[in-house]
Amino acid sequence: MPFANHAQELRFQHLTHELRCPMCQNETLADSNAPIARDLRNQIFKMMQQGKTDDEIKQYLVARYSKFVLYDPPLTRGTWLLWFGPLLILLGGAGVVLVAIRKRGRMPANGSSGPRPSIDNGDDW
After folding, report:
1. Rounded to the nearest 5°, which phi and psi values hold at 91?
2. Beta partners for 70?
3. What whole-number distance in Å separates Cα of residue 73 and Cα of residue 19?
4. How many whole angstroms separate alpha carbon 31 and alpha carbon 109?
5. Would you say residue 57 lies in a domain?
6. What per-residue confidence (pLDDT) applies to 123?
7. C-alpha 124, offset from chain centre
8. Three-state SS annotation for the chain
9. Which of 82, 93, 94, 99 has a CA positioned 20 to 30 A from the CA of residue 56?
10. Residue 97 lies in a domain
11. So what's the pLDDT on residue 77?
């Protein structure tokens, strides 16, 4: 792509690193080789040539692909799970492990839960 100057090229690189490829799970538009990523890079370049700001370009992409396209989505009611979901899963897993350890610590050493039976050696006869 023929950039007008180095500043425009840096802006393009920065912008494509802030946006996620809609087809790829964890790749930026800059890193993805998917056809849609190539198309979006071309679209971003054209919009930059038209004088659109970074915010206008991002708003255009969010309108088409939702906030998923933003690599660092803002914290809103709709995205709180993206931000805190991994932490909640980690805390839930730690809670399960702690409960299992506590239950295991309360068990007698031989694994039985009641009193030990007396040994009958057959002397009653």
Report:
1. -65, -40
2. 19
3. 10
4. 56
5. yes
6. 66
7. 70
8. CCCCCHHHHHHHHHHHHHEECCCCCCCECCCCCCHHHHHHHHHHHHHHHCCCCHHHHHHHHHHHHCHHHECCCCCCCCCHHHHHHHHHHHHHHHHHHHHHHHHHHHCCCCCCCCCCCCCCCCCCC
9. 82
10. yes
11. 76
Q: What is the CATH number of the domain that holds 13?
A: 1.10.8.640
Residue 109 pLDDT: 60
Is residue 125 in a domain?
Answer: no
Tell me how many domains the chain contains.
2
For residue 61, pLDDT over 60 is answered with yes
Q: Which residues of 75-94 are buried (b: 16+ CB within 10 A; e: fewer)?
A: eeeeeeeeeeeeeeeeeeee
- Entry pTM: 0.60
Residue found by looking up tokens 């790829």 in the block:
24
- Residue 95 makes CB contacts below 8 A (sequence gap 6+) with none
Residue 118 in any domain: the answer is no
